[in-house]
């Protein structure tokens, strides 16, 4: 018995005499994930970082990258979710990657913009893309008139039928048209033209004439020169006018080249008067519309003294694949 106690005391003394091993902070920092959810979250964080660096380097440079950029906000949100999971798993280096790229993505894309609500508008502009295969112009006219617009900027419309429906329900509308695009107003349209594939008109609005551009942009990410040609023409035309509004289907989110080129010469009205993400596509009339709107590709850009006092997305008409956007616009003194 005494021998057993003696041996135990000797082992205790040896353990106490040995130096304690210090934990290596680096080992904890670079700890490997040990389960499938952690590996998946880490893969999402790293993949999003790779996409973000490619976006910074090349913009919409290729077809695949252009479409990925259109979903930039959602990639950032996925990275944020992955970062939160990695924090829970105590894989902090992976979480740091996810958090950095998520914050950069959400900030640059302005995913959630909260503008200041406006007061009484100077005039109201409504822009809507109705889908070329949609024959229901009666529903379109009813929906658009319900927003009480002063100016309509419509894409992919059956113009003659839409005008008949508008005039029948809401009085006489002056208009300018090109193919399936129309700029309509109860006031005078001073002149109109189509240049670079873009319909524009000078409209006599409160405070003076305003040049309005109807945007139906290409979505040719597999041929970036097509996009750049269109938006170069738009930027050039807007730069030459002191007061103007470009409204319609830009086929571009804040992550795409076309949006960036327009934003370089004009202000996004949603940043001034919109609330929330402003998603406009798709509606339930598209095959993927079961997801409901998840990207913002319909915009209103302003130049000169014009300001968007209030902007909102309104309900779509039967058959339309985009939600219309209504903008209450005032002139700054």
Per-chain topology:
Layout: H1 2-17, H2 25-29, H3 36-58, H4 63-70, H5 72-88, H6 92-109, E1 113-114, E2 123-129, H7 137-146, E3 151-155, H8 159-170, E4 174-178, E5 181-185, E6 189-195, E7 198-205, E8 208-216, H9 224-239, E9 244-249, H10 257-263, E10 267-268, H11 269-273, E11 275-276, E12 298-303, E13 306-313, E14 325-331
Parallel strand pairs: 2-3, 8-9
Antiparallel strand pairs: 1-11, 2-14, 3-5, 4-5, 6-7, 7-8, 9-12, 10-12, 13-14
Task: Walk me through this protein's architecture.
The protein is of the alpha+beta class and 333 residues long. The protein folds into two domains: 33-109; 117-331, Endonuclease/exonuclease/phosphatase (Deoxyribonuclease I, Chain A, 4-Layer Sandwich). Helix content is 41%, strand content 24%. It contains eleven helices and 14 strands. It has helices at 2-17, 25-29, 36-58, 63-70, 72-88, 92-109, 137-146, 159-170, 224-239, 257-263, 269-273; strands at residues 113-114, 123-129, 151-155, 174-178, 181-185, 189-195, 198-205, 208-216, 244-249, 267-268, 275-276, 298-303, 306-313, 325-331. The strands form three sheets. The chain has a six-stranded mixed sheet with strand order 4-5-3-2-14-13. A six-stranded mixed sheet has the order 6-7-8-9-12-10. Strand 6 and strand 7 (198-205) form a beta hairpin. Helix 3 packs antiparallel against helix 5. The longest helix is centred in the first third of the chain and has 23 residues, at 36-58. It is elongated.
